[in-house]
Amino acid sequence: xxxxxxxxxxxxxxxxxxxxxxxxxxxxxxxxxxxxxxxxxxxxxxxxxxxxxxxxxxxxxxxxxxxxxxxxxxxxxxxxxxxxxxxxxxxxxxxxxxxxxxxxxxxxxxxxxxxxxxxxxxxxxxxxxxxxxxxxxxxxxxxxxxxxxxxxxxxxxxxxxxxxxxxxxxxxxxxxxxxxxxxxxxxxxxxxxxxxxxxxxxxxxxxxxxxxxxxxxxxxxxxxxxxxxxxxxxxxxxxxxxxxxxxxxxxxxxxxxxxxxxxxxxxxxxxxxxxxxxxxxxxxxxxxxxx
Length: 291
What we know:
Layout: H1 3-19, E1 26-31, H2 36-46, E2 51-57, H3 69-73, E3 95-98, H4 102-114, E4 119-121, H5 128-137, E5 142-145, H6 151-167, E6 172-179, H7 189-202, H8 206-209, E7 210-211, E8 226-232, E9 238-245, E10 250-257, H9 261-274, E11 280-282, H10 284-287
Parallel strand pairs: 1-2, 1-3, 3-4, 4-5, 5-11, 6-8, 7-8
Antiparallel strand pairs: 6-9, 9-10
């Protein structure tokens, strides 16, 4: 089948399915395409049915801008060049997948919301004010925003709440997270989300009971504390442990990411899901049907 004929058939299929309110072959735009996560997301898109790479972009000053995205991420030439910004490729796709930097992701979401374009955001490090802005922008376009998109971690988010409620006040709660030495924010967004879920389950205010470091003569540990400790080193992809320490026993729930591919798979799953949702702010619990 000639490429031109194939394109016409795909276009007809998209028009027909679009009229039914469902998109069959989803066209994805990947932000931060030359980064580690961007590359893994593109590889995952290539291996996933029902979604294709429509465009990729980087910040304007990035050395990969103008290069073939396939060659940059190790897939071979694809005839698709990395663009210098989202604006220039916004109309090319149905959904944007963004794992970049908190200020950049917010700017991308503003642009997407103005065009009613669905977005998947896996970026971490947002301030409380920025999260509030995301919530407001999501009223205009569907948005999945989650600090961690792996299925295992999102199940962990749910399980720790049940554990906390069952164990109650007799157990001290600590979170230990470890990541590679390039990670810029601390604690990780996943650790913060775990702490928020634990605080909610225990009826505590995380702003009052969260403890992020200990040094010197700090005195006895307060029973209401939720400790969040950070480790940075080497190429650790991501490890999170929630420790429930009681008298004479302890429970530990640990998730270890072996590669970035599980995050990429979650992001692509979210992209396929979000395009058929109404405007609003969603997370991976929604995508996975856990709530």
